[in-house]
Design a protein that fits this description.
alpha/beta; two-stranded parallel sheet; 16 helices; about 10% strand; binds D-xylose; binds calcium ion
Length: about 450
């Protein structure tokens, strides 16, 4: 097999004083934290689309990335070379998982039958390489947004023929995900949204999306696919109004159509910030509702209003994310997928590794800090103290369902001396800094 990253060594942990760019400073995969290794906690995943398929193009210019696996005209040869490069990269980074869209791994043919045949051939090769390298598929998904046929959407298109095509594509993507032992299947509504209500039947589109998801659930049962189904919220881009805006919107949608028992969420950092939330907010909301499924870890740029998908290097956000994950008891069947790409000007193949190392180190250190925070319990104690009034007297009655408007009025009329206490936000933020600085 060709070595695509010949200049890059196997990346090892060298500790925080290392000056070696091609070494981990914080991610020590076998280090045990709270009874689990870092490797088990973090389930790092390579995103096939950003790492192998993307080329660095933007609306103003063509691709810039060096892609030594992409120098053939035969697209199937390219697909195989790309897959070999993918496994070499995962292996050198010590990453156990990958995730893909159907069209990332195999090209489209002249019709659906040929496209499916291409996919089958590549999936067979993928299975072989998974065995050789001992790698696992975190999730599969269908790219039902890139091809011009999806210009009006896939499961929310105005065109019933396109709807049928999208169903056939998702059916096949589920089959190949099952074939490769995928632990999850993701639905990201790429073009499921709209631009103007002047041409949109909002109710029909949402009903059709629910019907589509129900058909997917039924088919999974039929073929015995036991992976977790995940919906990935995003508020905008490519459409102005994406139906799966954020965790709260998706939850309401699922409950409305009786689909909530079948789906959890795949939450992405950059999508959270585009929706005007923090990543921590979205993850916490999913956690308390029992729908935290998996994570797409990256970061946006606060000065740019679009989905920049950068490698996560912000330790503050990483710490607060891992704090939620630990409070959830881990990420379960999900994982931490780097839905991240290097900048257009970081076009050398080595940059791919440097991006992953930066992200893996940041999350690893975030995990360490968050674990310490939970172990010492200062923040949990502060929260408990803040809500103490609900542990006794009238507060306890409220929580136990023993109060009603009349009893509360009676209480308020006789206890009008209300005293509030400071929320101590600045103190808590300073304490958080202390954890970060000291680790
Ligand atoms: C795009 C999404 C996409 C999903 C998978 O913004 O992040 O990559 O994760 O379709
Ligand atoms: Ca994503
Ligand atoms: Ca994104």
């Amino acid at each position: 097999m060709v070595e695509y990253f010949a200049n890059v060594p196997y990346i090892k942990y060298e500790g925080k004083n290392s000056k070696n760019d091609f070494a981990f400073k914080y991610y020590n995969l076998d280090e045990v934290i709270g009874g689990k290794t870092m490797r088990e906690h973090l389930k790092f995943t390579m995103s096939y689309w950003h790492t192998l398929a993307a080329n660095g193009s933007d609306p103003f210019g063509v691709g810039t990335y060096q892609k030594p696996w992409d120098n053939e005209t035969d697209q199937m040869k390219v697909a195989k070379a790309k897959m070999e490069a993918a496994f070499e990269l995962m292996d050198k980074l010590g990453m156990d998982y990958f995730a893909f869209h159907d069209r990332d791994i195999a090209p489209e043919g002249k019709d659906l039958a040929e496209t499916n045949a291409f996919l089958d051939e590549i999936v067979a090769y993928c299975k072989e390489l998974m065995k050789t390298y001992n790698k696992k598929l975190l999730w599969g998904t269908a790219n039902a947004f890139g091809n011009p046929r999806y210009v009006h959407g896939a499961a929310t298109t105005c065109n019933a023929y396109v709807y049928a095509y999208a169903a056939a594509q998702v059916k096949k993507a589920m089959e190949v995900t099952k074939e490769l032992g995928g632990e999850n299947y993701v639905f990201w509504g790429g073009r499921e949204g709209y631009e103007t209500l002047l041409n949109t039947d909002l109710k029909l589109e949402q009903d059709n999306l629910a019907r589509f998801l129900q058909m997917a659930v039924d088919y999974a049962h039929k073929i015995g696919f036991t992976g977790q189904f995940l919906i990935e919220p995003k508020p905008k881009e490519p459409t102005k109004h994406q139906y799966d805006f954020d965790v709260a919107t998706v939850l309401a949608f699922l409950r409305n159509y009786g689909l909530d028992k079948y789906f959890k969420m795949n939450i992405e950092a950059n999508h959270a910030t585009l929706a005007g939330h923090t990543f921590q907010h979205e993850v916490a909301l999913a956690r308390i509702n029992g729908v935290l499924g998996s994570l797409d870890i990256n970061q946006g740029d606060p000065n740019l209003g679009w989905d920049t998908d950068q490698f996560p290097t912000n330790i503050y956000d990483a710490t607060l994310l891992m704090y939620e994950v630990l409070k959830n008891g881990g990420i379960g069947q999900g994982g931490l997928n780097f839905d991240a790409k290097v900048r257009r000007a970081s076009f050398e193949v080595e940059d791919l590794f440097l991006g992953y190392i930066a992200g893996m180190d940041t999350l690893a250190q975030g995990l360490r800090i968050a674990y310490k925070m939970l172990e010492e319990g200062e923040f949990e104690a502060a929260v408990a103290e803040r809500y103490k009034s609900f542990t006794e007297g009238i507060g306890k009655d409220i929580l136990e369902g023993k109060a009603d408007f009349e009893s509360l009025e009676k209480y308020a009329l006789t206890n009008s001396l209300i005293k509030n206490k400071s929320g101590r936000q600045e103190l808590l933020e300073a304490k958080l800094n202390q954890y970060i600085f000291n680790e």
